[in-house]
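User: Is it possible to get a 3D structure for a protein together with its bound compound? The compound here is adenosine-5'-triphosphate. I've pasted both below.
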Amino acid sequence: MSPYSATPVLRASGLHVSFGDGAARRAVLRDVSLDLFPGQLALLMGPSGSGKSTLLAVLSGLLAPDAGRVLVDDDGTAVDVWGLSDGGREKFRLRHTGFIFQGYNLFPALNAVQQLEIILKWGHRLGNGEARERADDMLNRLGLAAQKYKKPAQLSGGEKQRVAIGRALVKDPTFIYADEPTSALDWENGQKVIDLLRAAAHARQSSIFVVSHDERMRPYADVIYHLDDGILTVERNTVSLVPAGPSEVSR
Ligand SMILES: Nc1ncnc2c1ncn2[C@@H]1O[C@H](COP(=O)(O)OP(=O)(O)OP(=O)(O)O)[C@@H](O)[C@H]1O
Ligand SMILES: [Mg+2]
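Assistant: Yes, that's possible. Here is the predicted structure of the complex:
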């Protein structure tokens, strides 16, 4: 069982999302509610088109729901992500959220160290020395010591994915959202990615939300959700949930 706190860092309730107009309008999320906890790796599985990426986007502040709330803890204050101004939401994302997408989204012109440094310098206002030190340290831990000065075009798929993971982890975010992080990787690199995400959840008390078809993820998850046609169910929860303590978010 993972060491984790019983106070949620995110409480989503009554989420509805539909796409399309008129007769073509289709519900993609139907009354979805879930809590995310620090130190917990939550895995979301489900068939293609069931709404998994849509849910990730709503929770992480990228896509506005038609209805529902996403309460998060912003330095001790409960805020609804979708009640914030665009600027406020952007600031929250920058400070508290790391993303890992399948396409890596690396900057083509920057080498591996610079990909991480830029996050720390621009997003977190760290000085050059500290940003370089933290970027170096993270790349070493990801087994990328020899790849530091390579640009994306000179890296393999697995190496690019590890740089993308480093970029998400280096700022020690409250939340890490990963959409199919292992789908393009072979067994060995997929395993490294899973280990890193789990270590981040448990050691840094980050809350990790992973969308994946990858059956290998299952044993690493603290909780497994299943989404089918926009309906969310809990498939397995290995964490024994005790009633949430008094927190702004849990009220
Ligand atoms: N911006 C959009 N406009 C219209 N329809 C959309 C939009 N985004 C997603 N959809 C539709 O919503 C449904 C859910 O999409 P979503 O990407 O969330 O599925 P998914 O579970 O992540 O699928 P996959 O496993 O293939 O990635 C799909 O039918 C998709 O076509
Ligand atoms: Mg998807």
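The first helix runs from residue 52 to 59. The longest strand covers residues 26-36.
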